[in-house]
C-alpha cells in the first residue's frame, strides 16, 4: 500500500523578508518571498501571497498540509530580551519601553496570531497540533544542509541573533541535524557587521550588501584597529566583542560614542557623500569578517573530520 506523502509548509514572518516554502517528503515543491507579490522590499508581514503561490503551484489544498512550521521560537527570544534588559538595567529603559508593548500585544501570542492568519488562507479547524516551531539556527542549518547534495556535512551558521545563538556549529547526517556548539548573544559577528553598516550610513538588516559592495573600493587600513579594540578573535574562530563600543543591547542605535571616537567621527548621515575613509572602513570590517568565517570553518572541519561544509 502506497504511503501518503508528508507535506510541510514552512513559514517566516514578522521580522524581515517573510516567506513560505512547501516541502513534500523532504523535497521542495515551491518557495517564495512575500515581497515578490506585494512589491514591498523586505516585506515582513504574514506571507499570505507566498503561501497561496506555493499551494497553487503544487496543486495542494490547505487541508492536505500535515504540518506548518515557523522558523523560530518566540518565547525563547522573549527570554533573551528580558534577561538582556535586566542585565543592563537601568540602561536601556527607553528601548525596553518601546519593545515590550509589541511583545505583550502580539509576539507572546504568536501561535494564536499564526493560526488566525492561516485560517484566512483556507486552513480549517484547530491548528494547534499542526503548528510547530523550530529554533532559529536549526532553521538556518536546515536551509543549507537539506537542499545540498551531501548525505553528511559539517554546518556553520552565522547571523545577527536567533533566540540566543549568533553562531552555531552542527553536523548533518541524512535527515537529521545535531547542533554541537553555539556562540551566544550579545557576542555576534552578524551584529558586528551590522554595527558597521549603521556607522557607514546604511540601514541595518537591509543595507549590509551595500557595505560589502563598498569594501572593494577601499583598503583594510582599520582591520587591526578592529581586532585590537572591538573583537577578541581566537585562533579557532571563537570571539568576544567589547560591548562598550556598541549600543545594541540597551539603546536604539548600533554603536556608542566610544566606537565613534575610535574611528574619529560620528556615523555618516544617510545619503550623504561617501569618502575614501568610509570605503577603507568597509574594506576593514570585510577583511575581519572573512577572517572570522575562515577560522571558524577550518576549526569545524578539523574538529568533525568532515569533508563537506554547508554555510548558512
From TrEMBL:
InterPro entries documented for this protein: ATPase_NBD, Carbtransf_dom, NodU/CmcH_Carbamoyltrnsfr
Pfam families recorded: Carbam_trans_N (PF02543)
GO MF annotation, one: catalytic activity
Residues in Carbamoyltransferase domain copies: 7-312
Identification of the protein by name: Carbamoyltransferase domain-containing protein
Organism: marine metagenome
Lineage of origin: unclassified sequences, metagenomes, ecological metagenomes
